[in-house]
Amino acid sequence: MSSPKPRVGERLEEMRFPVLGREGTVAVGQPKDRWTMMFVYRGKHCPRCKRFLNKLNAALDNWTDVLDVVVVSADSEEKARADQQEFGWKFELGYGMSEAQMRSLGLYVSEPLSDAETDKIFAEPGSFGIRPDGTLMLVDISNGPAARPDLEELLDGMKFNIENNRPVRGTA
């Protein structure tokens, strides 16, 4: 089931997620000095997510030269930590995304197919480009694990948008 989609050009509802490796939370949707790219992934149970996030991690310096990167899922701290330790991810890794947060972002929400997959609902993938004022510039949402943005193309497009102060597109 999907949720109403957030509107580009409008302020994202402020959300906070606990993050591995430090006290406190990471926040999105509030004013800050830099652009942010937030990637939502399905969780530890998803091998396609790991491939995507490993590619992101390999290119992370290129991304963080331009904007902040936040990655988040509904996973527990233990599951997120296990993945971070196994793969050596260096990006900010948030966990514990609530169903209300998933729906606020317009993400598709899935029930696990079995206990072997996971033990609770989870969000399908999404990518969100957020301006320093907290407004959404870009929204890319998938209903399943196979459809993901090309990270090189996405970064190139975000650089262009940032450097040229491009207006939001696709508002209707």
From TrEMBL:
Domain Thioredoxin residues, every copy: 6-163
InterPro entries for the chain: AhpC/TSA, Thioredoxin-like_sf, Thioredoxin_domain
Designated name of the protein: Redoxin domain-containing protein
Organism: Roseibium porphyridii
